[in-house]
Amino acid sequence: MAELTALILAAGQGTRMKSNLPKVLHRVCGVPMVEQVIRVVREAGFDKCVVITGFKEELVRKDLEGKNVSFVHQAEQLGTGHAVMQAIPEFEGDKDGYVLVICGDTPLLRSETIRDLSEVCEKNQAAAAVLTAILDNPFGYGRVLRDKAGNMTSIVEQKDGTPEQLAVHEINTGTYVFKAGPLLDALKKIDNKNAQGEYYLTDVFEIMIKAGEKVIPVAADDADETMGVNSRIQLAAADRVLRLRKAEELMAEGVSIIDPEHTYIEQDVKVGKDTVLLPGTMLQGKTMIGENCEIGPDTQLVNVTVGAGNHLNRVYGHDCTIGNNNEIGPFVHLRPDTVLHDHIKIGNFVEVKNSTVDDGTKLPHLIYCGDSDLGKNVNFGCGTVTVNFDGKNKHRCRVDDHAFIGCNTNLVAPVHVGERAFTAAGSTITKDVPAKALSVARARQTNIKGWVKDDTYKD
Ligand code: UD1
Ligand code: CA
Questions:
Q1: What does the DSSP 8-state code read for residue 24?
Q2: H helices within 2-67, ranges in order?
Q3: How many C-beta atoms surround the C-beta of residue 128 within 10 A?
Q4: Can you give the C-alpha Rg of the chain in angstroms?
Q5: Index of the ligand 1 atom closest to the CA of residue 13
Q6: How far apart are CA 219 and CA 230, in angstroms?
Q7: What confidence category does residue 12 fall into, taking pLDDT thresholds of 50, 70 and 90?
Q8: In which region does residue 55 sit, left (phi positive, over 0), alpha (psi from -120 to 50) or beta (all else)?
Q9: How confident is the model at residue 454 (pLDDT cuts 50, 70, 90)?
């Protein structure tokens, strides 16, 4: 089988982004643009991905660690043709192989579009297939020039074109599939005698056509797909497109999204059917939601695993696990390494960190629960605080099944409250409480009669 190699051009800085980060590392729908391009390219069947890097190369390599791509360094950005020349060793082994060239800043392209392009190249035994688009405003792009018979003759860049050439609305999207042999031959012949003093990859087409090779322009069905991101404004536009695609994908699988324009779901997120997502919900990272949940409004979950039948209202959760049939919120903060089991109630203004909470337990209002293990059907009264940090070390609290913690109790860790034990409201518990005991740890109330003299206050 012919070898399929994808070259992803990503050496430029992306000046118009006004960023310290290379342009291709800016994220769309939670994924760096260059990674998004790699995903699409792989889906289209190009398993071997070569990323051409230059500006802040180490950052690009770091973000793509473990993604099974190789890197080619382009020390100086002397043009797109020069960039491809640096990668020649990656594809010269199989002259009958195919080489996809794509930019790292075109995250909206679909894998079908790329697959179609490579099929056109292969089926027609062409030297190249060029993805083009018809734009109302073609300014800035290379224009696809054709002869009277309508056959493509060359591509001319904005800065090199005559007014007549620049009047053409068919543009070069910068995505191509080449047959390796003719590409290698044509690359030898390009130079940098043009307005920008660059080695243009686009010059290979005229060379190929003159050598009698076939070059086929393929107009994209959806010109929006070919959009390149050059500025933050375009980044936001691309993000929106991908976000809506993700929402539509989930809706097609049986998820209800009340207002897709105001729901932010990153690409790797999974949501089960009959779950309803309310406006202002952000599901990020590796978050997974089960079936029959109601999430939102205004809920942000980052790397959170959520089971089935949960209601989460105004919750911020990160790196934690939620079981089934829980009622959480409003205004709840779930911090890393929290594990909630089933049928739990967590109410307003509650923070839970690095704790396990077993079935049926209630933390209804104004609670800090950190580094603790709570059994089944425990009740924390309003204002309960686990005091787990002594200034140097963190300690754990353990509260066993059916224990009842009175309002405004401080549980000073390490401490253990036994099964069915009670603590009196306002207690500061520093010693273990045996099972079924009532622990009272507060000053007894004293009423001093006649404290207020008749002449103390005058109306
Ligand atoms: C290029 C095409 C133009 C097309 C447009 C589509 C050429 C000469 N022109 O123009 O016909 O309409 O894309 O967006 O190819 N890069 C490198 N190394 C370099 C130069 C560029 O890696 O030496 C990378 C950039 O990081 C970028 C991509 O190649 O990802 C495109 O380069 P850019 O300079 O933006 O090309 P355009 O001038 O837009
Ligand atoms: Ca340029």
A1: G
A2: 33-43, 57-63
A3: 27
A4: 31
A5: 26
A6: 22
A7: confident
A8: beta
A9: confident
Amino acid at 360: G
Residue 330 has φ and ψ, to the nearest 5°, of: -80, 160
Length of the chain as a residue count: 459
Cβ 135 vs Cβ 126: under 8 Å: no
Residue type, 25: L
In terms of phi and psi (left: phi > 0; alpha: psi -120 to 50; beta: otherwise), the region of 444 is: beta
Q: Report d(CA 185, CA 191) in Å as an integer.
A: 13
Q: How far is CA 333 from CA 283, 349, 367, 447, in A?
A: 15, 8, 10, 40
User: 208: Cβ below 6 Å to ligand 1?
Assistant: no
Nearest CA-CA partner of 309 in 341, 352, 285: 341
Angle value at C-alpha 37, between 269 and 260, nearest 5 degrees: 40
Q: Pick the catalytic residue: 169, 311, 365, 395?
A: 365
Domain 256-439 is found in CATH 3.40.50.720: no
Kindly list the domain boundaries of the chain, sorted by start residue. 4-226, 256-439
414 prior amide bond cis, ω within 30: yes
CA distance 153 to 145: 6
| CA gap 423, 381 in Å, rounded | 10
131 Cβ below 6 A of ligand 1: no
CATH of 4-226, one of 1.10.150.80, 3.90.550.10, 2.40.10.10, 3.40.50.720: 3.90.550.10
pLDDT at 452 over 90: no
Q: Which ligand is nearest to the CA of 77?
A: 1
pTM, to two decimals: 0.92
Confidence of residue 459 (pLDDT cuts 50, 70, 90): low
Q: What is the DSSP letter of 443?
A: P
Has residue 387 got a pLDDT over 80? Answer: yes
Ligand 2 midpoint to CA 108 (Å): 20
**Whole-angstrom Cα distance, residue 112 to residue 172?**
18
